[in-house]
Write a structure and sequence with these properties.
Protein name: Acid phosphatase
Number of domains: 1
Structural class: alpha/beta
Radius of gyration: 14 Å
Number of helices: 5
CATH class: Alpha Beta
Oligomer: single chain
InterPro entries: Acid_phosphat_B-like, HAD-like_sf, HAD_sf
Strand order of the largest sheet: 3-2-1-4-5
Keywords: Signal
CATH architecture: 3-Layer(aba) Sandwich
Helix content: 25-40%
Number of strands: 5
Order of helices and strands: EHHEHEHEHE
């Protein structure tokens, strides 16, 4: 079965990335959908592609993340993968590579991998194609 890994992408403030402020903002549940992503999402669903959201957000943000995704138009997905406590200290590349490896282990074939940060796209098990989205708001180095 084919799966497309999408990453929870949000429009954030123009200040340098600050994890504390970012996590407070996440808990507000006011993330916006990029309209191009929403259009692609709907097209992929119509083609029978299963969507996976893989994010560096933590498990304690699952409810607000799922609610926010639905509020902005992302109503259906195969999985919403958030970072559990066992990933403390691991890089985003290592975490996301491992999660993609798990999907492939269970029979999924990653046909596309879309992200706005290089850490979304680097590492292993990245799929048939990768697509780097521009992010004019912040950059994670």
């Amino acid at each position: 079965m084919g799966v497309l890994c999408l990453y929870v992408t949000e429009i954030f403030r123009t200040e340098p990335f600050n994890a504390t402020i970012f996590n407070e903002w996440v808990m507000e549940g006011k993330g916006l959908a990029l309209q191009e992503n929403l259009k692609l999402y709907k097209k992929l669903l119509s083609l029978g592609i299963k969507i996976v959201f893989l994010t560096g957000r933590t498990e304690d943000q699952r409810s607000v993340t799922a609610t926010n995704l639905k509020k902005v138009g992302f109503h259906t997905w195969e999985k919403l993968v958030l970072k559990g406590p066992s990933y403390t200290g691991k890089t985003a590349v290592a975490y996301k590579s491992n999660e993609r490896k798990i999907f492939e282990k269970y029979g999924y074939r990653i046909i596309g991998n879309i992200g706005d940060q290089w850490s979304d796209l680097l590492g292993t098990n990245t799929g048939n194609r990768t697509f780097k989205l521009p992010d004019p708001i912040y950059y994670v180095s």
